[in-house]
Design goal:
14 helices, five-stranded mixed β-sheet, globular, eight-stranded mixed β-sheet, alpha/beta
Length: 564
């Protein structure tokens, strides 16, 4: 909608000079503008080639009458078109306002966002990280009808579904990582933006983090993973049903008949009832599928079923040309703005649209979905899990470094790393050591930069020095400027190797700083870099990873629920 369609923006002065815009009959009759007149319909000039003035002869009067009639018709056409343009523009504005008013928004963070953004690549692009949250809130009649008891109304909702969508900086690959809802984590201090209630830092289950709002869930993820999260989106039961209907359904599969109902020792159930085979589900059936846990054996099985559903949704949207079909986009926009709650920096229809377009060109075979590698929590091994030492940190490192989780892409990246130039001699490398140990909320470890500098000097890096300016880093890293290219990376890798650090600590940064070692909160004391208890070679092992282009997956059913 252009600014010129707004009432009062120059429309009245331009009526007198309508001929300048092509509304005179001469433009339509012989392609020439009427010359010599003043642009008003009651004045005419002598016609070229006749030798007659505009004031003589019956024939001329008749001709002028005809021309006047044509002018009136054209004026009516012009007026009609103007009203149509104005009306359409107004309708478009009102519809945009309607979509904007649909959206519910909240603070991105609850006050403890601690991760650092990944540096832009050579093209100035940065990765995109969005936290997707499924709330079990029953605090509306519609949500209560879809699941839960009346006693649950008014309770603080739980974040029973949590997934991180990572889209690479070049938008050529994407991944979705789920954290099981019963994962034990450190929850940072959070202040709920709606109730203003404050919650001290504590150790608890990750699905309890909504007590401080969606921003608290985001802060918890950042503290756990070290990945900077740009935005969050949250949906409740009713929103899932509406979105499933708007998409038109998704294909899922079960290997046996299933009926997820309460059992004598296992209360609760989604009441999903389905025959063996493939089914296209939507509406309330889709919600039951996404909520099913017991019939899929565990919360891990439920995550796998959710990934199967989301993969199918992506295939459906691409198959429908939903990213380019205006009609489909409007339908989806109407439902999405009504169903989603989002962080405020993406709280407009345009920003949501732009966000959706980020996924348009990602090939399905470059999208990977998985669940965090985990081990039983020793304090409650039957009910709770912990991130698997070593493997989980490697996974977070891949996301922080914007590396593809696609096995083929990772193999290519590894081969490229192994063929770099030889590192410079230690004594020739200037290294600045920064104390970043305060990133976890604790006071910075005093003298830490100097202690690590001395370790480097003992290893032959005699030009190592400290920075007077403190930094912040949850995990220790060795960075090199982009302008240094492959040589800079080789030099940084040599520093990491000298101190017994994994190659994942090496990062590229925008031009400006030289080789820099930032000591993170993970290395507050000691002269030896702390190694994880387990260092699995493949962080994706045991994560139920599945490629989005794969269409033949089928869910196993836990035997007590194999019935109709």
């Amino acid at each position: 909608m252009g600014r010129s369609s707004t009432p009062g923006e120059g429309t009245r002065p331009r009526v007198r000079h309508a001929g300048q815009l092509g509304w005179d009959d001469g433009l339509y009759e012989d392609g020439k503008r009427n010359e010599g007149g003043d642009g008003r319909s009651g004045t005419s000039a002598a016609e070229p080639g006749t030798g007659e003035s505009g004031g003589g002869g019956r024939r001329d009067r008749s001709h002028r009458a005809g021309k006047g009639k044509k002018r009136r018709v054209l004026r009516w056409i012009a007026i009609s078109l103007a009203f149509l343009i104005l009306g359409t523009g107004a309708a478009g504005y009102l519809y945009y306002e309607h979509l904007s008013n649909n959206l519910r928004k909240g603070k991105r963070s609850a006050g403890n966002s601690a991760a650092k953004k990944t540096a832009p690549n050579a093209a100035g692009q940065t990765p995109l990280n969005i936290l997707l949250i499924g709330s079990d809130s029953r605090n509306s009649a519609e949500n209560l009808k879809l699941g839960g008891s009346k006693e649950s109304v008014g309770n603080t909702p739980l974040a029973d579904v949590q997934m991180l969508l990572h889209v690479s900086a070049d938008r050529k690959n994407a991944s979705v990582v789920s954290i099981p809802r019963d994962t034990t984590v450190q929850i940072p201090y959070c202040k709920n933006p709606d109730t203003h209630k404050k919650y001290p830092a504590s150790r608890g289950i990750i699905n309890e983090t909504l007590r401080g709002g969606a921003g608290c869930t985001l802060d918890t993820w950042e503290k756990l993973t070290g990945v900077y999260i740009d935005h969050w989106m949250m949906v409740d039961f009713a929103g899932v049903v509406d979105m499933a209907d708007a998409v038109g359904g998704a294909w899922v599969c079960v290997k046996d008949n299933v009926y997820d109902v309460p059992k004598p020792r296992v209360p609760g159930g989604s009441y999903l009832r389905m025959k063996k085979g493939r089914h296209k589900i939507q509406g309330e059936v889709a919600l039951k599928w996404l909520r099913t846990r017991h019939a899929f054996a565990s919360d891990i099985g439920r995550s796998k079923a959710q990934h199967m559903y989301l993969n199918s949704v992506m295939r459906e949207l691409k198959g429908q040309n939903a990213f380019t079909d205006t009609g489909r986009l409007m339908d989806l926009a109407e439902t999405a703005t009504s169903s989603l709650q989002v962080s405020e920096e993406i709280g407009t229809p345009k920003k949501l649209f732009d966000l959706g377009m980020q996924l348009k060109n990602v090939p399905l075979d470059k999208m990977t979905m998985l669940t965090m590698p985990r081990i039983p929590d020793p304090d409650d091994p039957e009910a709770h899990v912990l991130p698997k030492p070593g493997a989980a940190e490697k996974l977070w490192g891949l996301l922080r470094d914007d590396q593809s989780l696609n096995p083929k892409d990772r193999a290519k990246a590894k081969k490229k790393t192994e063929t770099g130039p030889k590192a410079g001699a230690p004594a020739s490398l200037g290294v600045t050591v920064v104390n970043g140990t305060s990133a976890d909320g604790q006071a910075a470890a005093e003298g830490r930069a100097g202690a690590v500098r001395d370790l480097l000097k003992a290893k032959g890096f005699t030009e190592a020095d400290t920075s007077a300016d403190p930094g912040t880093a949850l995990t220790t890293e060795v960075s090199y400027p982009r302008s240094a290219g492959a040589q800079g990376k080789s030099d940084a890798l040599s520093i990491a190797k000298a101190l017994g650090m994994p190659t994942s600590v090496v990062k590229e940064t925008p031009d400006g700083a030289g080789l820099t070692l930032t000591v993170g909160s993970d290395w507050r004391t000691g002269s030896t870099f702390p190694k994880p208890a387990v260092d699995d070679s493949d962080p994706l092992e045991g994560t139920e990873a599945v490629n989005s282009a794969k269409t033949d997956d089928c869910m196993d059913i836990y035997w007590p629920y194999r019935q109709m």
